[in-house]
Each structure stands twice: as C-alpha cells, then as structure tokens.
Amino acid sequence: MSDEETKPDVQSGGSGAVAPDDETPSWMERKTRSTGLSRLTYEYFERARREDQDLRTESDYVERDVLGFPTWPHEVIRNLAITMFFSGVILLIAATVPPHLGAPANPSKTPEVILPDWYLYWSFGLLKLNPLNPGLEILGGDKIISDQLYGVLANVVVVSAVAVVPFLNKGSARRPVEQPFWAAIGVGGFVFSITIAAIAVQNLIPLSLALQLNLAFVLPIVSGIITYAVLKTMREGYMYDLNRRYYRLRPPK
Amino acid sequence: MSLEKKDEFDHNAWLKRKDLTPIETTFLMSLIYLDQRLRIVDYLEVLETLYYRVNLQMPKSHTEQYNLDNKFWYWYPLYSLGFFSIVAYIIAAATGALLGFYYTPSTAGDPSMAYNSVVAITTDLNFGFYLRSLHRWSAQFMTAAVFLHMIRVYFTGAYKEPRELNWILGIVLISLTLVFGYTGYLLPWNQLAFWAGQIGVEMALAVPIVGEWGAQLVFGGFTLGEATIVRMYILHVFVLPFVVTALIALHVGIVWMQGIAEPH
Description:
The complex is a heterodimer.
Chain A: H1 2-6, H2 27-58, E1 68-69, H3 71-96, H4 121-127, E2 135-136, E3 142-143, H5 147-168, H6 180-200, H7 209-245
Antiparallel strand pairs in A: 2-3
Helix pairs in contact in A: 4-5, 4-6, 6-7
Chain B: H1 11-18, H2 22-38, H3 40-55, H4 62-65, H5 71-79, H6 81-102, H7 113-123, H8 128-155, H9 164-186, H10 191-206, H11 211-219, H12 226-258, E1 260-261
Helix pairs in contact in B: 6-8, 7-8, 8-9, 9-12, 10-11
C-alpha cells in the first residue's frame, strides 16, 4: 500500500534466505491487511450499489403508486398460526369421518343418483340447464345447439365471466362499500353458484323444476339488489372514516 | 478519443488508482468477477436485511402503521386461505404418494383390481383407512379453501390492476384443482366414479369439432375402461402434480413480488 512504497528498499542487506525483519509483516500489519480486505469489499459494494442507484434514476421505469405489504414476515407468520390449526382439523376429521367406498362400478346398472363431488355441483348444475336452451320457431321448434353443448358453453361463459373481472373493474377501491355495484355482482355470483348447485341435486329437493329454475336466476338478482341497497346506505357513514384516515394516504383517482 | 469507458463506475480504472497489493488485487478481481456474474451484492443485502429482521423487533404491520384499528384483524382468517390451501395440497401430496404404493390402476376382474386395491388399502394396510381418509379430506379442504380464497380476493379487491395476471393464474389453478379432484374421484372405480366418468365423456363428446378427439385423449375412448382409468391415474399422479406445483410456485412468486394487496 502507499505506506510500504514510501519505505526505503531494505532488500540490499542480508543473505536473502530469511526475510529481514523490516519485510516480515508484523501482527498489526497482518491485521490491517485483513481488515483492508473487508474494507475493500465494502468499498466495492458501495460503488456497485451507487451504480445500481444511478441506473435506476436514469431509467424511464415509473414506480407505480400501488400499496402492498410484505408476504414475509407478516403474512407468512400470521398464516402459520391459523394454518396449523386447520391442519389439525384435517387430521381430526380424517380420523373421525372416514370416506365411504360405495358399490363397485357396474356399467349395466345406472344408479338413481349420479353426482360428482360437491365442488363440481355448480358445473353439473350448468349442464342441466337444457330447459332454457331456446328452440327456434323457424326451425320448427328445433334447438340450434344440442343440450349437452349448451351446458358446456354455460360453463365456458361462467368461467370467462370470472376471468374478465379485473379488466372491467380497475382503480384503487378495495372495500365493498366503496363499490357497491361490484360487491352486488359478487354476492349475486356467489348466490348463483349455490342456486345452480341446487339444480344439480334437483331430484333431491321437493320443488318443481320450473320453480327451481326461476329461483336459480331470481335469487341472485334479488340478493344483488339487496347488497347494493345496504352498501349504498352504509356508504355515507363509512366514507367519513375512510376519507379521514385512508384517502389521505391514497387519494382516489 | 478512446473507446474505453471513462464513467465513474469503470472498476478497472478504480483498481489501478487504488494501487493494491497482489493479495488485494486477486481478492478484488475475483470479487468483481463473481459479483458481475452472480450479483453477490444483492445476496449481501438479503443477509443484511435478514440480520436486522432477526435482531430487531418485527416492523410495524400495515394496519398498525396506518392506524386501521382492528378492522383488518377481524377479517384476518380469510387472508390465510391461500397459504392453507398450499398446506392441504402438501398433505394430499404426501398421503397420495403413500397411497400410490398400494393402488392398482386397472379395471381387470370383477370387482376391478382398482376397487379391490382400494378395499385392501382400507382393510388390510396398517393405517390404510386413515391414509385414504386423510388424502380425501385434505383434498376436500384444499378445494374449499381455494374457493373461499377466490371469494376473499374478490371482495377485498385484491385482483385489481397490477394483479390481473395472478387472478387469471388463479382461475387456471382453481380449474386444475377441480380436474385434480375429478381424476381422483374416478380412481376407486366404484359406481359414483364410473358414472361421473360417463358424464365427463358425454361432456367432451358434446363439444363440436375437438370433442371426439378430446374424449379419446383424456378418457382413452368413448366408453370407459382400462384406458380411462390408466389415463386418469397418470393425470392424477404425474401430469397434474408437476403442472399445479409449478403454477402454485409462480402464483406465490408473483404475490411475493407484488406484496399482499392492501386490505383497506
């Protein structure tokens, strides 16, 4: 280093077999040399960081005004508590309520109740919408698409309706009270998933098919309207609080 | 005028200016070499933040920081559904791997070998009934958690603008979860399984143009049989686990990068 350079050359004396005392690094010199390495590392990383910082300020990337809070550690640690509890519930229920294994498959004997697992009831219900498949007078009452295809298309329509939601509803509003309309759509959709599941098990429910089909479409609309009315009413009182403590942080667009 | 870079971050010029000993030069050269390739500086920062994370108090949470009272905590259980569905998925994977040792995907015989193997698992195998019960219940819990997770995301507006991609990915994942459930439902080859499979074939055949092709691809023909159960088995234990695990990793990775959507 710069200190060593200023020292006079001491190699002229001595045999050269043993390093003269002046050249052997002392403990202190070793110490400064090793701390020098960490200092060097530090200096280099500081430069690298500044370089990154400069690149960031130069770039035209605009940081977006979207708030989020960290997955780690907040979210994961909190989740662990609740998740451990419910994993225990899985172990307990698995021990107390074992699954039923019915009769073996028999292609020649159609059972009275054909059902998928509960989570596919909504899809199965959509397959049973054939009474709504319109017949056309011009075709002599024939249907333009088969009942089965109608059911499959109903599934496609429902899934794609869910998929387009984030492209229709944008902005910074988060709570249902802020957007009663979208909350109403959500509640309507949720109720529809239940009523349509009821259609899947229609033969187990003592109501006529026509009434059930009407209920399947009227109930979601009614619950949507009720949600809308309730949230609209709540909004006024709610918005005061929101404005005070929250919109100051994240002004609405 | 030379072509060499003369900017502030010309590390070589900096090295020359520093006038270092051979040890220091070697050290620094290798450090720069590694850093330029592996971005060590980033990992150093990770270590640094980890250090502060373990040594300091946990930072204030979003709700504490912005004084959102306890409104968030009230809804909190709904925020853990995504994580819970992953845990249920892991339980199902572990028990499923064990069940796979004893299950035979074949319709040969009457009742079929598949059905007999499930009977053998539940009656002859030590803890076999519990294993099957655990597999089925964790699958049920996972599906329920995934549905409720979607509802939570909808009503807290967490799907909004920068997170559309993850919403779409979530729809793909929920669909694949349902396919997982459906293929698993068919494996015991009991009456319910057979007739649920029948509905699946009819659904596939109803689709114009690609319907028949799809039925042959997924169910191995227009009537249910040996080919169907083998395909369902391969889908259930080979194809779907890889695809779903990869997509879950992507889904969680995007959440990790974007942060949990602010609740209020």
